[in-house]
Amino acid sequence: MRGNRRHDMQQQELAFPRSAKLDEFRSNNKGHRTWELREITGYVVEFSGDQHGSRFIQNQLSTASSDERQSVFDEIVPNNILQLIQDVFGNYVIQKLFEHGTQTQKTLLATTMEGHLVYLSKNLYGCRVVQKAIECILPDQQASFVRELEPHIMGLVKDSNGNHVIQKVIERVSPDRLGFVSTFIGHVHELASHPFGCRVLQRCIEYLPDAQTRPLLDELLHHHTLNLMQDQFGNYVIQFILDKGRPEDKAVIIGQLRGRLLFMARHKFASNVCEKALQFAESEARRQLIEEIMAPASKPDGVTPIVTMMKDQYANYVLQRALGVAEGEQKETLINTVRPQLLSMRRYSTAYSKHLTSIERELEKLSPSEPSR
């Protein structure tokens, strides 16, 4: 990002030599004198595209009079707005106009953007302005934005910039205007396992009513839970449901973990889901999961799940979480089972030193040793 910004600055200066006014401003921009907005009348667009000039205008707009803001606005809208929206520094000036302008000015700014929203949403700087616009415009114009974006929704969801715009739409626009959410049905796994789609799906679950999210959740929970637990991006969606979802949806996920906890705990991505499940499960469900951890050895080698987890680079974190959330007698039993195994492994092996140190610290937090006399 930093490299791109430097390149943009170099290209900008080559393409547009600075005016004498901007040169004067930059040379005096060391605290030698205070400038006012009225002094750059006729140069607002050029200043907006300059690093120092843009910062000056941004600072001034927050305290400017209505006439001063109107003067800045008139130089930018409509002829220069699209250029500045996509500019490395100019986009911040447009965002400030959305923040501090009158509702009429905000409406005119957004109207000028209409017809270009898909392109702007996919632009590194433009997507920030589109998001700011969505925050500041009236509901009817938000709906107009949605109608323009809707035919391109899946492409935007999967775009590195566009996904942020769709997330903002889901957060800020009234759910009854978000008919596009129904197009996600049948594509839940595709979205949940996508680096940007998984974020959009989480925003749907977070902000939309059950009537809109239920088909998506049912598709996910009844067809894709185990696969997504083990997915690089899907595991975040499963974790989100465990953290923020309804009790019955959490129960479905935890039910899928039952009988598979040891296998999932040793998986790079699913281990995170196991931790979250232990943290947010209902008391009885948590007890059952921890019973699975404390089960006796089931293979001829005599190795118990606890020993396996202590040695594993991912499962040891799940064991630590279990130690932290276990309750009552089960907690005592778990501690008393882990402690002798820890001493034994310390005595006979140095291979798992890092894992064992973390488990020791967890045990110390739970049952600090008596101070020596």
Structure, described:
The protein has helices at 2-15, 20-27, 44-48, 51-61, 66-76, 81-85, 90-100, 103-113, 117-121, 126-136, 139-149, 153-157, 162-172, 188-192, 197-207, 210-223, 225-229, 234-244, 247-257, 261-265, 270-280, 283-293, 305-311, 315-325, 328-348, 353-366. 38% of the residues are buried. The model is unreliable at 369-373 (pLDDT under 50). It has 26 helices and no strands. With 373 residues, it is mainly α. Helices cover 69% and strands 0% of the residues.
The main pleated sheet reads as: none
Binned strand content: under 5%
DSSP, total strands:
0
Computed CA radius of gyration, to the nearest angstrom: 28 Å
What is the overall number of helices? 26
Q: Assign the structural class, choosing from mainly alpha, mainly beta, alpha/beta, alpha+beta, or little secondary structure.
A: mainly alpha
Kindly report how far apart the N and C termini lie. 58 Å
Fraction of residues in helices? Answer: 55-70%
Instruction: State the shape.
Output: elongated
Please trace the helix and strand order, writing H or E for each element: HHHHHHHHHHHHHHHHHHHHHHHHHH
What is the mean predicted local confidence, pLDDT?
91
Detail the poorly predicted runs: 369-373
